[in-house]
Amino acid sequence: MPEKESLPEKKEESFFSSVIQKIKRVQRPEKATKKVPRDRSKMVAISVWSCLLVLLAFTLLSAFLSVNTRSVVNDIRVDANKPSKQDKPEVSVPAAENFLTGFINEYVNVKNDHESIEKRKENLEKYMVKQKESNYEESERFQLDGVKGDRVLNDYSLYNVKEGDKYSLFQYKVTYTNVFPVEKEVEKKVKDGKKEKKVKEKVTENEKAEKQLLLNIPVISNGDSFAVSAAPYFTQIYDLRGDITLENKNVMKDEYAGDKKEAIEKFLQTFFGKYASEKKEDMVYMMKEPEALGDTLEFGEIKNVKVFETKNGFEAFCVVQFKEKENEIPITENFSLSLTENSGQYYVEKLKHQ
């Protein structure tokens, strides 16, 4: 009987154990881990703006380089178009004056006869530059048509020299006389039997008119060789005087009024006395760069002295009057002197003729 009861218990245990095993074999689904997506909008915005800024920078840089390159090219073109110093050599004014002496005489002097006019034209062409191409007929530049008299050169002198791109313009003040025939009606007494009567008749007389003008002559050179580059022309004489004001650097300074001023004025009296009477080599002990009049003039007086103190000593401005020894004609000159002092002795470091 007891064995029969144990069998059902075993069956019951095996049932529970099999259920448990089945439950264990059932796999639970793993929980899926949900990943929250990151917010990438800021990164995208930053990238877009960065690209735009880089693009803008490249655009501005390209525009700047383009303008700069264009400016450089324009500068190169301008420099290329400018006449270089090699295109126009420096002209020796004394040599050019000697060259132009014959030209001026040939050009201004005109004698009213066919042979002289042709000879003048031939001589003037010898001074002219040879041009392969010209806008003007060279054969016409010295042609004289309808001449009614002579022209005589009285005097000429160099007035100014102006530098052009390809030539130097020599301006001469010339004085000349025009001689020209004038028909006049004059009264003459003629015999009429035993009496005299007045009759009018026409006669031709030469009259003269003096003129003074600027003769402008364009000149080019090649070393010591010269040529007139175009036909000369006359203009009115202009005034060379200019309304020019120089700034006086010492106007705003206060004049020196110390105890050394009297000694400086005495030194200047001695200095200019020796400057007039001594030789250049005798002034070495008083001047750094010696000069003197060598007794050609006589020292008169110092009319005005202004003394200013400087870092290295003093600067004196004075008006000095010299005289001709023979007839005492006064000659007044302005000087500035840079002075240094050593143990009470003064020395001229620099002398300027103002």
From TrEMBL:
InterPro entries: TcpC (IPR024735), TcpC_C (IPR035628)
Domain of life from the UniProt record: Bacteria
Regions crossing the membrane: 44-67
Gene3D superfamilies: 3.10.450.540
The entry's keywords: Coiled coil, Membrane, Transmembrane, Transmembrane helix
Database matches in Pfam families: TpcC
Keyword Cell membrane: no
Coiled coil ranges: 107-134
Record-given protein name: Conjugal transfer protein
Source organism of the structure: Bacillus paralicheniformis
